[in-house]
Amino acid sequence: MPQTVLITGANRGIGLQTAKELAGRGFRVFVGARDERAGAAALASVGSNAEVLVVDVADSNSIAAAARTLAKTTDHLDVLINNAGIYPDHGVSILDVTRDRMVETFQTNTFGPIEVTQAFLPLLRESSAARVINVSSGYGQLDGLSSSVPSYCLSKLALNGVTIMLAQALQSDRIAVNSVCPGWVRTDMGGANADRSVEEGADTIVWLASEAPMNLTGKTSAIGSRFLGEDRGHRNDAS
Ligand code: NAP
Prior knowledge:
Bound molecules: NADP nicotinamide-adenine-dinucleotide phosphate
Number of strands: 6
Oligomer: single chain
Mean pLDDT: 93
């Protein structure tokens, strides 16, 4: 039976690259997309063992509907990758950021991963070795915070806290939960000047999904370190 993976925000960027690579490793891939047509367009490049699952991670009804749909399609989920994210406030000072902007960012980057994990937990519990991977950022580390990227930094800092708490809460279920920073990656979010390709950005995520030891849990990684060299530090220019 092939391993199953759901990746949110997999219609483009790092999520799409991760989908391609895990499909190439034999996974049955559920390509999470909030827009069904964008998901369907991405499918062609992922391969035949992939399906679109419509899920807007900022919308509770959409998350619940997606969990119901997936439960009709598969009896277990081995890997959940909370990848969908927004980066709406580059250049906005913490002195000016609005409450609405912070709420908007947290809805997608922080509350989304919590609620998605809760909703898919019944299927994760049916896996013999389930993993949850939260795609975070160097901006989400205490020593990576930037006062000119306020809502994004705070949302990813909180996401790292979510990772630690989920890992604790799911230890008895033997579900491994980790965060990863993909580095500064050439996507719509990272821009053309970023120093890493999507392949490099997806590298540690793919490793966590397919090869990492199951006793690795509750970690918030440095960039692409594969958790083995967390003392290598992080880059301040990574979003
Ligand atoms: P991207 O190219 O902008 O893609 C973002 C993806 O998230 C898209 O598929 C987008 O869907 C989806 N998305 C946004 N809001 C969503 C929602 N409410 N529900 C479902 N999907 C939603 O970004 P990326 O560079 O691949 O980033 C992927 C992850 O890596 C993010 O969590 C990001 O914070 C993190 N990251 C990126 C970098 C970087 O340099 N690129 C650095 C550090 C961390 P639509 O197409 O529908 O908008």
